[in-house]
Design brief:
A hairpin with a 5-residue loop joins strand 1 and strand 2. The longest helix has 17 residues. The chain is elongated and about 130 Å long. The protein is α+β, with helices and mostly antiparallel strands. It contains 16 helices and 16 strands. It starts with 5 loop residues before the first strand and ends with a strand. Helix 13 crosses helix 14. It has 3 domains: about 110 residues, 2-Layer Sandwich (Beta-Lactamase), CATH 3.30.450.20; about 130 residues, Beta-Lactamase, CATH 3.30.450; about 160 residues, Reverse transcriptase/Diguanylate cyclase domain (Alpha-Beta Plaits), CATH 3.30.70.270.
Length: about 425
């Protein structure tokens, strides 16, 4: 038994209640920490051979097994653990025909549980564990060979892309990509392969972040925003590529919502001042001529004072809806702040913008629109200042200051009018 991960010994209890080792193999001695090599003379006192705290615990198990209650031939197991050591012992009483009382001798057999566990770790067991872990992964895992065909497709990938693994294994990886990404995919794979640095990847695992955001294609044609972390691996002397793919649709929707909120006025749902300024700046930088106006509700404070701020807010929402409905083409109607609104008309000169502004002013004055107010229609008028960009002008602030001066003139001239600046 010296060449296997097991040991055996015969332990007996003498007439004085001391434990003796009447036989054992070398492995049992080594396990118990006996430094003197092979034992040639038996019996030997257990305590003389095997001192130590962990052995003391095993000794207590032996003493507990000897009383008369164990004389019925029943077997018992106990474990011996210390750090990386783990042996499991079986204690079997040796029945004697003429025994007058209790158990006097025990056959002890032990096996190395850690070695047994390693022995059971057969290749098929390892492969089964690997496939189980891959299938339980939260993220999609997809691998492809050097010919760009799919070689692995886990359960999360099935849920993400809508295909079963049987349908896609052996199929081109571009099956999972939007059509407009397919032509350039082989070139990107080659670039990644040429630039891949295994040492760097081992020190710094592949990351998922915004720079790795791409798009996948569901079986039904839906485009899916995803993040990927790609690794180059060697399997059976062949190069494969493994991608961990994470569904970020919820995050993408949240980002779009946040972007919209950052560019939108919360009360009127119109573009806000910053969005309007960026829009006008882009048109000026592109040397596109445009006209703008600033609109202000006349005596708006009186509306708030008479009807309350809730009704005042409803007036602003009605004004916003009507103003945005009159924009055509690529124009923009936005909230400037408070009771002021602005509009931009790319490619339109000042006279055309003036005419559009005055038509809008008349609609407000005559209440030529459907009301959504909770009370009867609230009469109000507006004053508007219009201006146009000059040749080569790129300063948005200067452009809007001219419109603001024209608005001031309209206010000073009696309100409810449009002035050109």
């Amino acid at each position: 038994m010296d060449d296997i991960t097991a040991c055996a010994a015969v332990i007996e209890l003498d007439e004085y209640g001391d434990i003796l080792v009447s036989a054992c193999d070398d492995k049992f001695c080594q396990l118990m920490g006996w430094p003197g090599g092979r034992i040639s003379v038996f019996p030997v006192a257990f305590d003389d051979l095997f001192p130590g705290s962990i052995i003391s615990e095993f000794r207590d198990n032996l003493l507990a097994f000897f009383p008369a209650g164990n004389s019925n031939g029943s077997r018992q197991t106990c474990d011996l653990r210390d750090g990386t050591l783990w042996w499991r012992f079986s204690l079997q009483p040796i029945t004697e025909r003429n025994a007058s009382s209790g158990t006097r001798r025990i056959l002890v057999t032990g096996s190395d549980m850690l070695a047994t566990a390693k022995a059971k770790e057969a290749p098929e067991t390892t492969a089964s564990r690997y496939h189980t872990l891959v299938d339980l992964a939260y993220d999609a895992i997809v691998t492809m060979d050097s010919r760009h065909n799919i070689t692995l497709f886990n359960r999360a990938a099935e849920n993400l892309f809508g295909y079963s693994s049987q349908e896609v294994l052996g199929q081109p990886i571009v099956t999972l990509l939007p059509e407009n990404y397919r032509a350039g995919h082989p070139r990107k794979v080659q670039q990644f392969s040429d630039a891949y640095q295994p040492g760097l990847r081992q020190a710094t695992p592949p990351k998922m972040d915004g720079s790795n955001s791409v798009f996948g294609r569901h079986r039904d044609g839906t485009i899916i925003p995803v993040e990927i972390a790609v690794s180059k691996i060697k399997m059976n002397d062949e190069i494969e590529f493994m991608a961990i793919v994470r569904d970020i649709r919820d995050r993408a929707q949240l980002m779009e919502l946040l972007k919209k909120q950052a560019a939108t006025d919360a009360l009127t749902d119109l573009p806000n001042r910053r969005e309007f300024m960026d829009f006008v700046k882009s048109k000026l930088d592109a040397s596109e001529g445009l006209s703008v106006f600033i609109l202000d509700v006349d005596l708006f404070k009186n509306i708030n004072d008479r009807y309350g701020h809730d009704i005042g807010d409803e007036v602003l929402r009605v004004l916003a809806r009507v103003g945005s409905s009159m924009m055509e083409g690529n124009g923009l109607f936005a909230r400037w702040g408070g009771e002021e609104f602005v509009a931009a008309f790319p490619g339109v000169d000042a006279q055309v913008a003036y005419k559009a502004a005055d038509q809008l002013r008349q609609r407000y004055e005559r209440q030529e629109f459907e009301h959504t107010l909770r009370v009867k229609p609230i009469p109000f008028t507006v004053s508007i200042g219009v201006t146009a960009s000059e040749a080569g002008e790129t300063d948005v602030d200067q452009l809007m200051k001219r419109a603001d001066r024209a608005l001031y003139v309209a206010k000073a001239s009696g309100r409810n009018r449009v002035e050109l600046g």
